[in-house]
Every structure is written in C-alpha cells, then in structure tokens.
From TrEMBL:
Protein name in UniProt: Branched-chain-amino-acid aminotransferase
Reaction(s) the record says it catalyses: L-isoleucine + 2-oxoglutarate = (S)-3-methyl-2-oxopentanoate + L-glutamate; L-leucine + 2-oxoglutarate = 4-methyl-2-oxopentanoate + L-glutamate; L-valine + 2-oxoglutarate = 3-methyl-2-oxobutanoate + L-glutamate
Organism: Biomaibacter acetigenes
PROSITE patterns per UniProt: AA_TRANSFER_CLASS_4
GO MF, one example: L-leucine-2-oxoglutarate transaminase activity
Keywords: Amino-acid biosynthesis, Aminotransferase, Branched-chain amino acid biosynthesis, Pyridoxal phosphate, Transferase
Pathway terms, separated by semicolons: Amino-acid biosynthesis; L-leucine biosynthesis; L-leucine from 3-methyl-2-oxobutanoate: step 4/4; Amino-acid biosynthesis; L-valine biosynthesis; L-valine from pyruvate: step 4/4; Amino-acid biosynthesis; L-isoleucine biosynthesis; L-isoleucine from 2-oxobutanoate: step 4/4
Function: Acts on leucine, isoleucine and valine.
Protein family: Belongs to the class-IV pyridoxal-phosphate-dependent aminotransferase family.
Amino acid sequence: MSIQVYVNGEYFPKEEARISVFDHGFLYGDGVFEGIRAYDGRVFRLKEHIDRLYNGARAIMLDIPLTKQQMIEVVLETLRRNQLRDAYIRLVVSRGEGDLGLDPRKCHKPTIVCITDKIVLYPDKMYEEGLEIITAATRRNPPEAVNPQMKSLNYLNNIMAKIEANLAGVPEALILNVDNYVAECTGDNIFIVKNGVIITPPTYAGLLIGITRNAIIEAAQNLGIKVEEKLFTRYEVYTADECFLSGTAAEAIPVVKVDGRVIGEGKPGPVTKQILKAFKELIKNDGEKIYLEE
Ligand code: PMP
C-alpha cells in the first residue's frame, strides 16, 4: 500500500499528493515546518513541536486555519492511516497559492501537508564510533534576518553548510554565528562536555531551540549533571573532553573529530554515553498516544 499523505484536509497516495506551482512555499520558501518522531506508538513531544510550528507561523504572520488540537489530530490520524508506530513525521504549513509576486496578501489559504514515513537512521557504527565533522564557512543567519529559532522553509543557509560537509566527506557541519561563536549544525544542536559539565550555546547565539536539545538538558539534570547555556568558540570545541549532537532524526550522536582535531580520547566519552542511554529511556513513555485503545 502506498503512503497516504494529508494535503489540506484530504488524504492522497503519495504519488497523487500535489500542491500548486504557485504555492509561495515553493516559490519563496514562505512557510514553516516540523520534523517529528514517533516511537513505539507514541509521538515524542508532539505538543512542543506544534507550539514551535505555531510560534514560527505567528512570527511570519501566517494564520494557520486549524487549532493546535486539530493539528495534533492531523498528525495522529495520518500515522493511523499508514499504520505506523515508529515514524518520521514532516508537517509543513506554507503561505499557500498566490501569484508570482511575493506579496503574501495574495495568498488566501495556507497549504497544510503532513507526511509520515519510516525513519531513515544514521548507521549504528556512527553511534558507536562517533562522527567526524567540519566547520562550515557559511554562517548562521543572524536573528535579525530569518530568525533561526523559527523552523522556516528557508533552509538554504543550512543546505549550503551541508554542501560544505559533503565536499569534505563528513556527515555534518558546525555552523558559527556572525560573531564567530558556535551556533549549531545543519540539522542538529551541539553540546560539549568539559570537566563533567555539559555546555550548549544559548538561544541568542542564533539557533533552533531543538526539542531534543530540551529533552537532553532535562535528562542531564535528572542525572545530576550540570548543564550550562553559554557562548563558546571553536577553541572550546577543539579542547573539549567530549562533544555530541542532538536532533529529532539523529537523537543524540557522539562527535569525535572536528576540523581534523581529535576530541578528547577520540571515542564517545562517558558523559555522552550516559546521556544517550538516558535519552533512550526518556522516549519510552513520553508522548501522545497514536492508538487511543492502547
Ligand atoms: N537545528 C536545526 C537547524 C535543525 O534543523 C534541527 C532539526 N529540526 C535541530 C537543530 C534539532 O531540533 P530538534 O531536536 O527539534 O529536531
């Protein structure tokens, strides 16, 4: 059976799911989106993802014609129709169909799409051995431009950094902000560990406040590990004891080499391992149930 995709209140087999070529999401990247995970019949932190989506929409003055509760139902119903228990969910809300000008007033109805599919993961080896990453020359767009806190459809900045990672033959790239401080990676947040303390850049460094990032901070605090949100440069990354990334798709993944510098012992460190384990525990009972009868 083909995947069923939600488009504006209806479900279509993926081959027949369509939006207009005049959609401003397509023409201008005018819209917001979310990437969400379901684990064993539960959607991890769905409310937080929906809040982030609606906050982004508010910031760009896009009125989503569904209540948050209705949007939650869209996600759950799409998963049920596809009989998925473990999934990656892509929710997209664009400005909708307009004309060729960029004026959003010409777009009368937002486009809402929900795609649910099986998750494609990094190979196990990467979790066991850790990743090598590089620093991209492309900088994070400053909060005064398209604010990175918003998961907007404008991902070109991140894509350019991803191309740099591809050219270097590594899976991820570190992105600095315009003031030379570490912000995040192309699709993940970053953490370093120094003397037993976990450090991650603060919101004002210019980054997406990851739902996984928040979950990891919580997990660390539950373990009694101190977490600090503060600005740091590449030097602090190079000289850290450990480094790891977090994101919905990657969960938490160790980093062992940055710009050719070996981090710590060059293998996933004890704090990272503890966090990975705690995160796995956290996802077991956290989240909205897909199948109400369970
Ligand atoms: N930063 C960026 C730029 C991202 O695209 C993502 C993935 N959504 C993240 C961080 C991690 O966020 P989350 O944990 O909510 O997936």
